[in-house]
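> example.struct
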């Protein structure tokens, strides 16, 4: 395997892992919210803040009266987008020089 191909595969792996971690943080916040996790807990507060920052671009895209549904949609959409775009970019990088 050439050195360039190895670097491309490494870059693709990094992109995919970042997308997965981002989706995991958002998914964890959705689960914590649905299970009514204690927001004064440091871990819960950290996950909520990180998820709010990561999902800032579609903030209040969906404005339902039902709070749990609003959270699932407003944080779930970014999960799907980050996974789809991140893995599409990673796959494109892997196929770029074959």
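> example.seq
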């Amino acid at each position: 395997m050439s050195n360039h191909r190895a670097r491309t595969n490494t870059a693709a792996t990094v992109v995919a892992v970042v997308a997965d971690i981002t989706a995991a943080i958002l998914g964890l916040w959705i689960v914590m919210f649905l299970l009514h996790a204690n927001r004064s807990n440091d871990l819960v507060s950290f996950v909520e803040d990180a998820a709010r920052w990561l999902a800032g671009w579609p903030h209040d895209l969906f404005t339902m009266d039902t709070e749990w549904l609003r959270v699932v949609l407003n944080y779930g959409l970014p999960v799907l987008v980050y996974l789809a775009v991140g893995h599409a970019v990673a796959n494109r990088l892997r196929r770029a020089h074959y």
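> remarks
The chain has a mean pLDDT of 92.
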